[in-house]
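Let's study a protein:

___
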Amino acid sequence: MIQIYNTTEEINIKAAELFVAAAQKAIAEKGQFTAVLTGGSSPAGIYKLLASDAYKTKIDWSNVFIFWGDERWVPLNDDLSNAKMSYATLLSHVAIPSENIFEMYKDGVTAEEFAVTYEQSIRKVLGDDGKFDLILLGMGDDGHTASLFPGQAVLEEQNKWVAAYYLEPQKMFRITLTAPLINKAEKIIVVAFGEKKAPALKEVTTGAYNPATYPMQLIKPVSGELLFLVDKSAAGTK
């Protein structure tokens, strides 16, 4: 399902409203809310809204558990860290217990070793069904999402929930949730705006199935909902 908005601000408001609604529903029904954050520049406005008094007071943050969809394998104080951005815009401004936050990085181990540990953390919180309540995703100009990049072997992963690998074009290790785990989620929200996203979004949503080139096409919820929140530029209607 695609929803088209006039401005980025409208997208941010809708995403924040959906986050709050999902949190309230999950906590009311089962006592906890499990959410996956995304990195990059796209979600910063959403996180700032959630950290504002108008939104943060509507969520019982003591029962929120935060994970990430992917991460560059850099220290948490590195400007490239998705976690650093998330803390600066949201997590440092709400009353969420530190033990409920699962950063996708740890000193002293390899990315591949930590991928195993991260999957264990997910299983401890979610159980073996691995069903997150809400996953936020972005989409790159090339149609990638999380660290599922075009042409990479991770696109073929069927068993691991978390994978790490060296991304040669970027000369760095990445760690990511895999498509099979993402697709278990109750709700997946993809945020995309700007005309640079238009060609990939068109291919992802209406083009032939070619996930090796457009990995976003791998995201097909097993039983949950997939929602694209895009602006007119990304939708190609402006």
The chain has eight helices and nine strands. The helical segments are 8-30, 44-50, 53-56, 82-89, 111-126, 179-182, 198-206, 232-235. The chain has a mean pLDDT of 96.
